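Q: Second attempt. The first request was missing the SMILES, so the protein and 2-oxoglutaric acid are both included now.
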Amino acid sequence: MGHHHHLETPIKPPVGQVEPPHRTDSTFEEIPIIDLSAASSTPAKRRELADMIRDACVNVGFFYINNHGIPDDIIHTTVEASKRFFALPAPVKMNLDIHKTENYKGYTALLGENTDPNGRGDLHEGFDIGWESHSNASSSSRDDKSAGPMTGANVWPPESDLPGFKEPVLAYYHAAVDLGRSLFPLFALALDLPEKFFEDKTTQSAAIMRLLHYPPQRASAVAEDGSVIGIGAHTDYECFTILWQDSVGGLQVQNNAGKWIDAVPIPGTLVVNLGDQFARWTNDVFKSTLHRAINKSGEERYSIPLFFGTNYDVLLEPIPSCVSENIPAKYEVITAGDYVKSRLEATYAHSATST
Ligand SMILES: O=C(O)CCC(=O)C(=O)O
Ligand SMILES: [Fe+2]
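A: Got both inputs this time. The predicted holo structure:
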């Protein structure tokens, strides 16, 4: 994984076709901040917001959002729960080993993942959950039993080992899923599609959330060649990711000049970045940008990405306005579920036999 979509030649639409968004040289130095409060304002403001999102998606592939609507106390209690989880004794965490489940739910130990095939393993530990309903959540109900390559029950630490964990984690999960649902119509607008374009494709949205903990990297643990890294250079698998990060810093985003730009923590914001499924939907008009994290701060770093996508049975077919005679479809059409599963298999392959 970690393949990188290089800068495309400027797109020239055939006569009579809507002009696709213009890509600049993508040598961005900063990641834009987009205020989501315009989403519930006038149609004109919503259109303006979609244009800003389009610009960020075409040129950067990353943006911060503020006024995102997830209450601070939900974030706070979830982060505290995450800290308590990672502080558990190793054997308790290893009982939840992700390799014991069919579909990548549970705990990943330090160096258990290798996000960049050139790396030696990632210096973070994680806890992964997928869809699970929650009686207090405002998310519309859905069929938890739906078949598919990525479904399956979450695993949770026993209440006796870690009281009061599942409740706040699911509260944040559902708040972030609701936020993700509200972004799909804006992405559709940004692509000059009807706002409802993704509606029938997101009734059972993929939504994998990870609690992540990056211990501080001692200078000696940072290999010269960067092969031991918090999370190796990669692109995400789903349509887009909603990331909460603490104030420690370490996330970096690569521009087309190959320069790593710091995604500095900005209080009150979340980071949104596009993943490879949106690159596939848009035939690379939307950019799935290479990123990595290195924690050289000397402090513990915590983050929470939520990878958001369509239903797993949806085919990743290019949007008609993004393909033409001059720009043929670049990607083989497969389902979202098969695509994610193949990417996860590659990521965990290197540790699968060790447990
Ligand atoms: O922890 C971060 O800041 C980034 C995490 C990330 O890129 C990922 O989990 O895909
Ligand atoms: Fe990522």
